[in-house]
Known about the structure:
Elements: H1 7-11, H2 20-34, H3 49-58, E1 63-66, H4 73-79, E2 87-91, H5 106-115, E3 121-125, E4 130-134, H6 141-144, E5 146-148, H7 150-156, E6 166-168, H8 170-173, E7 177-182, H9 189-193, H10 196-200, E8 217-223, H11 227-230, H12 236-241, E9 244-247, H13 254-264, E10 275-276, H14 279-294, H15 307-326, E11 332-333, H16 336-341, H17 354-359, H18 361-381, H19 387-394, H20 407-415, H21 420-423, H22 435-451, E12 456-458, E13 462-464, H23 482-487
Parallel strand pairs: 1-8, 1-9, 4-7, 7-8, 10-11
Antiparallel strand pairs: 2-3, 5-6, 12-13
Amino acid sequence: MAKPQTIGELKNSAYRSRGVKEELRSNLIKKMGKGEPIFPGIVGYDDTVVPQIINAILSRHNFILLGLRGQAKSRILRSLITLLDEEIPYLAGCEIHDDPFKPICRICHDRLREQGDATPIAYLPREQRYVEKLATPDVTISDMIGDLDPIKAARGAHALSSELTIHYGLLPRANRGIFAINELPDLAGKIQVGLFNIMQEGDVQIKGYPIRLPLDVMLVFTANPEDYTARGKIITPLKDRVGSEIRTHYPATLEHAMAITAQEAWTDRAESRNLIVPQFVREVIESIAFEARQEKKIDKRSGVSQRMPISCLENAVSNAEQRALRNHESHVVARLVDVYAALPSLTGKFELEYEGELKGADNVAREIIRQATARVFKKYFDGVPMQSVVQWFELGGTLKYPESAPVEEVHRQLKGIHGLVEKAEALGVKRGDDAALRVAGAEFVLEGLYALKKISRNEELGFFAERRPPEPPPEESVPMSPRRRNLN
């Protein structure tokens, strides 16, 4: 069936106009009734954040997402467009997409008076109904609301006081849609004041024009609690007008975090068809973020973004890819050595406290990798005897190989350590598996023993066991002579 092309045809159709908040509410109820996911791709918020957002939409509230960096705040806001209708009609040529049945701008009123039911309409897809602005200190009230356009006045021979000379800002252009402001505290206080009317009375006033624009818009914001004191603040009257304040958080479980990283990290590389990232390597990479969030040397107020394990995984895969290319190997298998090679993807993802500054970002990152390795090692090898491997080093054995050494060479050296390669079976690495995978498992065992301080490692010797001097025998207790007792 052909879509209506004029207001007259639209009146004779089944279309009924409704406000954007009512539209979001209605479509949300339909989705929930069908059991469809509300925010596909958002992991770990099903029992915490998502129910609060649902409540805000059902209440027709403007809301703010408050949380540290890397907590999917912007992604959630952009996902709101899935709750809008696929397209809506508007008066063709209108800058602010006026409702054909409820026009608010002067130009559309004039056109309706002249053309009546023959006034043409156009259709606005949902993707164009989302307007996002990153708040920066240089944003002006003209950018947000609008201003006088002298060029319009000159070209149209309009008086400067005419409504026809207005240049609309971002907020009016978001009419009948969603307007999002990221990092709200960065917006100057006087600009935040400009949002009062639209949030409470539903209208904006542009400069000195004696007009009201009763906009139909859903306002959503994001903010980082750290920014309240570091760069700016949300003024109290504006906070009072925000219907719901929703706190986001980092993944609560390792499984949720790994699902996010697997979803976001670029590891599906056409050139590396035989790419394998073992489960234990993924767990170490994810545990790095969990350990970093608990590390005293790292500033907890800044947070540790979920982007850290995503970047780390991508960098580790690239290092494994580089090694395989240099050695002309068909399989690309990520190992613990690749995680250490991914240090550049970690050090820029956290802010250090004073103690951490003294130690240095690289050293702090290495220590976090070591802690993460220990955490995962205990999961797989709790109760598994490792004495045969440790004893090989205690008897004077050392193991050193270049990070870029071919897999076969490393595999040959690892097999020389009694029982080491067999221990990797606890990781799910079987005897018949590819040599690169067996190397990854055996290397993880060594790194785990190093992380638990069962063996040592340095650049000069590689893996080795420190030889501690034998403890002296306990001195025999000899009774003191009467002469010595008197002297004491």
